[in-house]
Design brief:
Arc Repressor Mutant, subunit A; alpha/beta; 8 helices; 5-stranded parallel β-sheet
Length: about 240
């Protein structure tokens, strides 16, 4: 974890210094900071990051605006930092490719805990990972390369959407509640009403379903949760 490369983007220099100081105390060695959207974009294009903290309110362009641009070059988890706390803002952040949403003012130790929890879910040594392929109808997932194909065409999925799809591929025809999905895929305790799962289910449907409003693969079981229903047998090999 200490080898992870982090990027912190915030126009409040005091917040940048505080987070950088606390993270270094927690043995994070590689931390870059940026105070503008343009600097953040430049860094994200030239360096590989394992996680990005991205302020929404930046002086030149908003974090919401540049998030999709950052997503073009990295699948690193993106945590939004913002004083906005409405459900609409949170949904907007997730829809644009964010993986978490931290509201200001925040407890810096909580931010560190979230970063550590998220990084623990990343593969440590992909070189020793075995290749597993899941094939469900028009859905193809290669766990070694991370490639996803729909109807034979490669599609790009945000990191957390990919993890959600992979979890469903591993557990076909099983019903999971929102809390179970959150705890299994996000690796954190579900603390009640949270739109994270719902938003990511919607984003996944938009990628894999022929008609997202009438899903055939990711079906809703009213009042209970969600289930992945393949329309053909799975072929898996290692």
């Amino acid at each position: 974890m200490q080898e992870a490369h982090l990027l912190i983007v915030d126009d409040e220099i005091a917040i940048l210094h505080m987070l950088e100081t606390i993270l270094k105390r927690e043995s994070f060695k590689y931390i870059d900071t940026a105070s503008t959207a343009e600097d953040a974009l430049a860094l994200s294009k030239t360096k590989r990051y394992d996680l990005i903290l991205l302020d929404v309110m930046l002086p030149d362009r908003s974090g919401f605006e540049i998030c999709p641009l950052i997503r073009e070059t990295t699948d690193a988890p993106i945590f939004f930092l913002t004083a906005r706390s409405t459900d609409f803002d949170k949904l907007s952040g997730f829809a644009l490719g964010g993986d978490d949403y931290i509201t200001k003012p925040f407890n810096p130790l909580e931010v560190v805990a979230r970063i550590k929890a998220r990084l623990r879910r990343k593969p440590v040594n992909i070189a020793h990972a075995s290749e597993t392929i899941y094939q469900y109808g028009n859905i193809y997932v290669n766990t070694f390369s991370g490639e996803v194909k729909i109807n034979g065409r490669s599609v790009d999925l945000p990191a957390q959407v990919y993890q959600l799809l992979l979890f469903f591929c591993k557990h076909p025809n099983q019903l999971f509640s929102k809390s179970q999905l959150y705890e299994q895929v996000w690796g954190e305790e579900f603390l009640g009403e949270d739109n994270t799962v719902m938003v990511h289910i919607r984003k996944l449907r938009e990628k894999i379903e022929e008609n997202p409003s009438k899903p055939q693969y990711i079906v809703t079981v009213r009042g209970l949760g969600y289930k992945f229903v393949p329309d053909c047998d799975k072929h898996e090999h290692s």
